[in-house]
Amino acid sequence: LAKVDTDKNQFIAAQFQIKSIPTVYAMFQGQLVADMTSARTESQLRVILDQLLKQLPIEAGATDAVPDVEPLIAIGEEALAANDGERALGIFREIAEIAPEHPQVHAGFVRALVATGQLDEATDWLANLDPAIAKDPAITRAQAALALAQSAPPVEDLSPLLAAVEANPDDLQARFALANGQMAANDRDAAADTFLGIIATERDWNEGAARTQLLKLFEVVGLEDPWVSGQRRRLSAILFG
Hints:
Layout: H1 10-15, E1 25-28, E2 31-35, H2 42-55, H3 70-81, H4 85-98, H5 103-115, H6 119-127, H7 131-134, H8 137-151, H9 159-167, H10 172-184, H11 188-201, H12 209-221, H13 226-240
Antiparallel strand pairs: 1-2
Helix pairs in contact: 3-4, 3-5, 4-5, 5-6, 5-8, 6-8, 8-12, 9-10, 10-11, 11-12, 11-13
């Protein structure tokens, strides 16, 4: 049984099209299976629940199953992909109330904190995670996002860096600063182009700093992401072509 405060969880209320209070829904594996709002007495609720239990494929021991929040997580991920950190932050905060032990929820929340520039809050959140949750690969990705943001702080105006690179393309430090600024601005295409350009010019410059940052970017985006696959092919062509 879960009670949702629709004032504090407006995203969830909108997803389930809550029109009045109270609204009582029966959920199974993350899906709405019955509207029980009309039941006003205990006997009416029992009748509805008995009917549901007969119809649903509920196995013994399934009462403690983790709620299926994958569709909601996907919406949060879409917000992050669209660089809408504030919206993603609200979504993952609300999902956390439903599934507080889901690693992907914590990971999404941390990445949303990073996307909104709340690096100290992200650091604190990761530090207080349950050790079992902290081992999940999704948390590793969130940690990479935080580390990358800490190493590449936002730049208010990239114009001076662009001008410096145009004036002296051989200034690899300026190109590296530009790539970090592009990355902080969530322009991963431009950042990858700039990092790859540095590697093509001098692959071991500054102890391979450009390659290191590029690999961090890959980890943040997700190693299975098609964009990363394409960029890795470009990197391989430079290193081994």
